[in-house]
Amino acid sequence: MTDTLDIKITKTTHSRLNETDFDNLPFGKTFSDHMFMADYSDGEWKNFQIIPYGEIGLSPAISALHYGQAFFEGLKAYKHADGQVSVFRPDKNAIRFNKSAGRLCMPELPEEIFIQSIAAVVDADRDWVPSKANHALYIRPFMFATDPYLGVTPSATYKYMVLIGPVGPYFSKTLRVKIETHYTRAAEGGFGYAKAAGNYGGSMLPARKAAEEGFDQLIWTDAKDHQYIEEMGAANVMFVLDGKLITPSTRDTILDGVTRDTVLTLAREWGMPVEERRVSVAEILEGAKNGKLQDAFGAGTAATIAPVGSISRDGEEYFLVDPKEREFSQKVLRELDAIKYGRVTDTHGWNYMV
Ligand code: PLP
Ligand code: COI
């Protein structure tokens, strides 16, 4: 790891590592001993520090709380059999971090600061990276506006932080999914392509309503007439239809997922026909009816490869083949894990060693 960022490190006097139950890790509830924090003011990033994980004091007037100048990233670190630790494709998240910053009128963070802050905090807490199968260290970089000012204007000050914590799988079962035909996650000209906190806030009511109807996830459709598929919950969505891998092309309503890109890259290398284009609800439901829909899954850092078991629209439910019998998603999940956990040679340079 390069170590050019001048980071002040204050270690905890009481590690919680031995009190942590690594056999019971619901997503996002366990945090490691340390976190990274930096401040932005006078047009520059400063005060790089690693401190014990815990509460921080903030004014109740900070504009992030009132006007949503806040966004985040999500990536993971993996432990290899030989004990080495790698972070998966942090350069991609660094680029997306700055796309989100740009859309929310927030300052960019140089890629070196993004990557070195992550490497430093993961290094400080490397004993927290789980070694169990399907487990990883989730990394949550985020930025938020800190001016204590109620005027609706971009803040002049910000904080950038990185939290980390061990996680197991986000989804533990095959998903019963509903195609959303009323609510919208993102509209053209909006900020669906940014990992803005507000995108997730707005998704909670539709997700709760779907859960009350017995569904595990929503498939978001276009805001105009709900005819085209966009994403699935907090993941991209991919299909194998008649032997081709099909996924909605990225646009300003869709997050350009790292997992999505990784899956597409592998599929192309394997010689599979790949189509990134608008995907209509009609063709997917037709494929589900006539058996040509061979695979459907969510793709995301937290979600990994999450199989869709059934797709419903307006009360009609279509069941897909048993995930265990799906050739593509099984193969891609195996290969992704083999790369991330260092079981095969990383020919793409995707693993950033810490
Ligand atoms: N789409 C949304 C809305 C997400 O929140 C995520 C999760 O990060 C993804 C897609 C998948 O992106 P990635 O594979 O980079 O995690
Ligand atoms: C991720 O996959 O990293 C995400 O951001 C999903 C999260 C909102 C749970």
From TrEMBL:
NCBIfam families: ilvE_II, PRK13357.1. One of its GO terms (molecular function) is L-isoleucine-2-oxoglutarate transaminase activity. Its EC number is 2.6.1.42. It catalyses: L-leucine + 2-oxoglutarate = 4-methyl-2-oxopentanoate + L-glutamate; L-isoleucine + 2-oxoglutarate = (S)-3-methyl-2-oxopentanoate + L-glutamate; L-valine + 2-oxoglutarate = 3-methyl-2-oxobutanoate + L-glutamate. GO terms for biological process: isoleucine biosynthetic process; L-leucine biosynthetic process; L-valine biosynthetic process. This is branched-chain-amino-acid transaminase. Pathway: Amino-acid biosynthesis; L-isoleucine biosynthesis; L-isoleucine from 2-oxobutanoate: step 4/4; Amino-acid biosynthesis; L-valine biosynthesis; L-valine from pyruvate: step 4/4; Amino-acid biosynthesis; L-leucine biosynthesis; L-leucine from 3-methyl-2-oxobutanoate: step 4/4. Keywords: Amino-acid biosynthesis, Aminotransferase, Branched-chain amino acid biosynthesis, Pyridoxal phosphate, Transferase. SUPFAM superfamilies: D-aminoacid aminotransferase-like PLP-dependent enzymes. Its cofactor is pyridoxal 5'-phosphate. The modification N6-(pyridoxal phosphate)lysine is found at K195. Belongs to the class-IV pyridoxal-phosphate-dependent aminotransferase family. Acts on leucine, isoleucine and valine. Gene3D superfamilies: 3.30.470.10, D-amino Acid Aminotransferase, subunit A, domain 2. InterPro entries: Aminotrans_IV (IPR001544), Aminotransferase-like (IPR036038), B_amino_transII (IPR005786), BCAT-like_C (IPR043132), BCAT-like_N (IPR043131), BCAT_family (IPR033939).
